[in-house]
Amino acid sequence: MTGDTIINSSDTVLLRANGLTKIFGTLKACDDVDLVIARGEIHALLGENGAGKSTLVKMLFGALQPTSGSIAWKGEAVTIPSPSVGRTLGIGMVFQHFSLFDALTAAENIALSIDEATPIGMIAEKARQIGKAYGLPVDPDALVGDLSVGERQRIEIIRCLLQNPDLIILDEPTSVLTPQEAELLFVTLERLRSEGKSILYISHRLEEVRQLCDRATVLRHGKVVGECNPREQTANSLARMMVGGDIHRVEREPLAADAAAAKAALIEVKGLSQRPTGPFSVALHDIGFTVHAGEILGIAGVAGNGQSELFEAVSGERLQERPDIIRIRDNDAGRQGISARRKLGAAFVPEERLGHGAVPDMSLSDNLLLSRHATDRKVFTSGGVLKLISASSLTSAARRIISRMDVRKSAENPDASALSGGNLQKFLIGRELDRNPSVLVVNQPTWGVDAGAAAHIRQALVDLARGGSAVIVISQDLDELFEISDRIAAMVHGRLSDSVPIEEMNMERVGMMMGGADHSAPEAA
Amino acid sequence: MMRIEIIRRPQHSALFSALSPFIALLLTLLAGAVLFAILGKNPVAALYSYFVEPLTEIWSIHELLIKAAPLILIAVGLSVCFLSNNWNIGAEGQFIAGGVAGSILPVVFPDFQGWYVLPVMLVLGMAGGMAYAAIPALLKTRFNTNEILTSLMLVYVAQLFLDWLVRGPWRNPQGYNFPETIQFNSSAILPEIWTASGRAHWGFVLALLAALLVWFMLSRMLSGYEIKVLGRSARAGRFAGFSAGRLTFFAFLISGALAGLAGISEVSGAVGQLRPSISPGYGFTAIIVAFLGRLNPLGIIAAGLVLALTYLGGEAAQISLGISEKSARIFQGMVLFFILASDTLIYYRIRIVSRSVETAAKGA
Amino acid sequence: MMFEAILLTVATAATPLLIAALGELVVERSGVLNLGVEGMMIMGAVCGFAAAQMTGSAWIGLIAAICAGAAFSLLFGFLSLTLATNQYATGLALTLLGLGASAMIGESFVGMPGVRMQSISIPGLTEIPFIGKFLFGQDPIFYISIALTAAVAWFLFRTKAGLTLRAIGDNHTSAHALGVPVLRYRYLAVLFGGACAGLAGAQLSLVYVPQWVENMTSGRGWIALALVVFASWRPWRVLAGAYLFGAVTIGQLHAQALGIGIPSQFMSSLPYLATIIVLVLISRNKRLTLMNTPASLGKAFVPDR
Fold it and tell me: Residue A171 forms beta bridges with which residues?
């Protein structure tokens, strides 16, 4: 406890959690956590992936029940058995992975979390009013599945505000926004604070925490490891508190100015267009880019602007209309499937780890075969046309990858689903690096990955490129892209902007590109 | 008040993978005992005549093999379907299609006699089953049509078609208007394995062979891996470069061929002619066999014998205790329920929460 | 009066499909796929027949059928919801068990005369030519089926609970995050589906052919499942589809009676072939089908605890 006398007075304390503990099986997700939120403050909750932030707020909101510990709300001890009780008390939650329903309209989505039955027309009207008042314009009759991520977030926030909460919990709200959209969100949040509402703000973006928040509580491995005024800290000191030590910076030699262009183009995409492949998926429009040996192209963009569709098109999970739309190492690959593209030297790591990059209930060695059965046929199978799987060579290759990428696991050859996000991602990236591919396309390489593993993965990507491969990194994490890319382009509404060399790039400019308003690249509009 | 909650295990349990069929069988026996007690029969005597009596005589073991053969053949094919997430529940129809196609030679061309007749019949039977199974596969891959419903609808169509054949064009002209074809000539009859002791025919050997081959494919070959990957996660399968559409055809064709083979073996080995009904629901019971065998062909051999026993047990219990032989179908249904429930233990831990404790915890 | 007679028989053939499909529609809207409709329906048919036969009251038979269908659906609910078993396999198990159990329960009732549920009669209205008997002279289950269609449509699209149910079917994880008791809603939906299937079965053994015949549902439960897909999960379209199938069924029966030279077995297979054709036509557009299908259909839900 900081011993701050002001926040101990019951008039100013809105919520006080004492000794909250949550145990899942053998894992202590939260361990004796104390948290005090004052009225009218924006309180940051910091911690890296897996530190227990989500578990903690779920307990505050009623979505999870603490194993032990207590919560006092406005000075009175309460139990919050369900989110609807939480809402009645005045606790609202804006989820990171929105709890919205694609097949329903915005108004219907809002109606779902209003406990009394209100006619849908009235809800739509109220939503419009609140939207106007707080600068959050929405169309109540639109199907949520058709909306952009930013619009969805607005619906989440309006849904929360309609219940007139005293405490609003926001989980990583800016991870789905452009820098400019984030600024607008901050205006809304500051306005809410000025109305006396409290905000619990979860983020790992330290600069915005310093800009916005009055106090911060830092979690590590489920425990509170510090409380501070973020304005008195630097981003570095906050990061050290979160990680519990120094963070490994990626070592990256700058690319020689004329080297990239002179070297061979390993992957060329031009005129890539594609109709939507599912009910709520995005069409691609005339996408083109080239990546040369030795460089990393970063593709920025808010989620849902066609990144997954681009990944599927480049990987060959979906074929193109003409062979020359995608060329890999001077071969027309547009009509070739993913195995053939792998044989041309390309490798792919998708965003979704479980259920796309790996089969959850298959062992690591079995999962190794997933992307390697065609390229390493001689190594992993025998018996000619029978294609008998060689279990021993799979096991030894899996062991090699595990040690090279420092994958931590609990059993000799566990199921993919038994690994933490970071360790599984290290394995999946290692699975491709093990082939030493000429082209690597990776979507959201460090999404949901702890800082140590993220640093390891980023370094591996840089090393691969500097070793002479072409690397494409699709990421929502701008800090990551600035750390490893040689050039950055942005995706918006299924279009890709021209790429800009990293030396000429800054946050504001990439934000404009992500918003689709970069006038320096008129072709992209 | 009690409530059951399940919690996902991080790693699937190898122990319960091995145990679950036995747990399911034990639970089925217990439930069966309760059922017999309710019907006013002595549970021990009833279970004895159900599950032990048929095994005490050699001829009866032969009958067991006759019933197990089609169950194993069909279930082995179904395991490929279910593992690859293709829900073929029309094996009964493919069984009939195989029986009909295989009978073309002995019924339409009874003059053909010789060593070649039987192989041709078996091949035609497999082809018939395959062709019939290709319909739902084609509709699924080409028109995105739900294979459960189409394959099942085709069962009714096949049954009606067979009914028409044996009452119409294929009816035995010397058969006193009975709805059946002529008796097959001796070269069209699948021979008995060991004539001296009972009726069991070579269909059972074919079933064992099929089980071994499919087991080898599933456990050792890349195509087996492909089946398992696409079945567990279609998206990961596409990432691996496997084609779901091609596999759908492969799975349906294999299971259609095996169901067709089962059909012609049954007609040629056990019946000797076509009749309006040539299967006591083998195509559906085989679904249970496939799950009880945990979709593993070697397990399916054992499961096929167990389910075949319920058919014989039903007959035995009717004779010795006056319990309806239809009770066998209840046993079969219960086995499937209990195996599915026991399989939960492989991926989840089960916790029983009593309300009072829960409220106390919340109040604390 | 040929027209009126045909209309009436079409309604009688359509009603069990309609009721069973409405029940399954609610189940599927909640994200659960219960392939056990056939099994629940036949349990309703046999229990309804037995209860009516023993008490002499068709109404008691009807209530018994509803209870039997609902109770039977609880088996499915316990496995697929509480134990998170594979819904496809569990539904199949329910159908297989239902067909077996009904055969055993019904063994002693085979060949017995049944109790027919009487049609209503309103003096003055029932005698109206052409439509009088259709509108005012049918059995009570017909009126229940129409009222049920309206009620399901109203519930799904006009009530908060219906909205919540649809939301669960769309995304059970989000619904859980909002604090919606996902499993409770699904249990209620499954129970409703079971009760409807039981009622549909009772219609068969109390109205359609008032006697007990083994396997008398002969695939109607499966056709009801197909109807839900055909109707894109919308209640009034289910009604339209059920009457279309009723018309096919009756049409082929009349054609058989007229003796038009096509073997009766081929005519009898028409409803099944029609089901396949209709499914092909409706599912051809993959994107549209995906759009209409409840997104969490058939997926097991296990909450974090």
Answer: A202
Asked if residue B263 lies in contact with residue B132, where contact means CB atoms within 8 angstroms, the answer is no
With a pLDDT cut of 70, the percent of chain A lying above it is 95
A101 to C174: CB separation less than 8 angstroms, yes or no: yes
For range B197-220, the mean pLDDT:
95
Please indicate whether, in this complex, the C-beta atoms of C283 and B337 are within 8 angstroms of each other. no
Residue C291: pLDDT band with limits 50, 70, 90: confident
pLDDT for residue B358:
45
Summary count for chain A: helices (H), strands (E): 19, 23
Instruction: Give the separation between CA A389 and CA C101, rounded to whole angstroms.
Output: 45
**H or E element: which one contains B133?**
helix B117-143
Strands A265-274 and A76-78: unpaired
Q: CA torsion, points A347, A353, A358, A362, in degrees to nearest 10?
A: 150
> In this structure, what token pair is assigned to residue B30?
């217990």
Fold of B2-363: ABC transporter involved in vitamin B12 uptake, BtuC (1.10.3470)
Report which of C251, C226, C254, C253 is spatially closest to residue C241, judged by C-alpha positions.
C226
Residue C272 C-alpha, separation from nearest chain B C-alpha, in angstroms: 5
Domain of A272, in residue numbers: 250-336+477-525
Nearest by CB to C295, which of A86, A99, A102?
A102
Rounded CA-CA distance A291/B80 in Å is 43
Residue A356 scores a pLDDT above 60: yes
Q: What is the pLDDT of residue A524?
A: 37
- Considering the domain architecture, whether residues A190 and A281 belong to the same structural domain is answered as no
3-state SS, residue A266: strand
User: In this complex, is the C-beta atom of B351 within 8 Å of any C-beta atom belonging to chain A?
Assistant: no
pTM (predicted TM-score): 0.93
Domain parsing of chain B, residue ranges: 2-363
Interface test with B, best of C42, C96, C275 (most B CBs within 10 A): C96
Q: How far apart are CA C47 and CA B258, in angstroms?
A: 38
* Within-domain flag for C304: no
Phi, psi torsion values for A150, nearest 5 degrees: -60, -45
Whole-complex ipTM:
0.93
